[in-house]
């Protein structure tokens, strides 16, 4: 299933996944440096959906805060 995700890197609230009308908002502690926030996003979504991190794929927006991700369940 595909989701639109807004990432909030460097958040003290993270890791946290919130559901909104527009999609998901994911707070991660990692900063947006060298892909660390993307790794944190993948781990947070995998834990939220109860799947392995390899089942979460970033489809679009690797360098943007708004991303399109796919979760294989």
What does the model show?
This is DUF167 domain-containing protein. Belongs to the UPF0235 family. The protein has 73 residues and is α+β, with helices and mostly antiparallel strands. Helix content is 19%, strand content 38%. It has one domain: YggU-like (Conserved Hypothetical Protein Mth637, Chain: A). The protein has one helix and five strands. A five-stranded mixed β-sheet has the order 2-3-1-5-4, with helices on one face. β4 (56-60) and β5 form a beta hairpin. 22% of the residues are buried. The mean pLDDT is 95.
Which descriptors would you attach to this protein?
73 residues, alpha+beta, Conserved Hypothetical Protein Mth637, Chain: A, five-stranded mixed β-sheet, 5 strands, 19% helix, globular
Query: In percent, how much strand structure appears in the residues?
Result: 35-45%
How many domains would you count in the coordinates?
Answer: 1
**Could you report the average pLDDT, rounded to the nearest whole number?**
95
Question: If classified by CATH, what would the architecture be?
Answer: 2-Layer Sandwich
Strand order of the largest sheet: 2-3-1-5-4
- Assign an overall shape: globular
In brief:
Helices cover 19% and strands 38% of the residues. The protein has 73 residues and is α+β, with helices and mostly antiparallel strands.
Helix/strand layout:
Layout: E1 2-8, E2 16-20, E3 23-27, H1 36-49, E4 56-60, E5 66-71
Parallel strand pairs: 1-3
Antiparallel strand pairs: 1-5, 2-3, 4-5
């Amino acid at each position: 299933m595909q989701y639109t995700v807004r990432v909030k890197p460097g958040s003290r609230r993270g890791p946290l996944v919130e559901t909104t009308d527009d999609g998901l908002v994911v707070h991660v502690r990692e900063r947006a440096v060298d892909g660390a926030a993307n790794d944190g996003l993948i781990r947070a979504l995998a834990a939220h959906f109860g799947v392995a991190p390899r089942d979460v794929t970033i489809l679009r927006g690797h360098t943007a805060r708004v991303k399109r991700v796919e979760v294989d369940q």
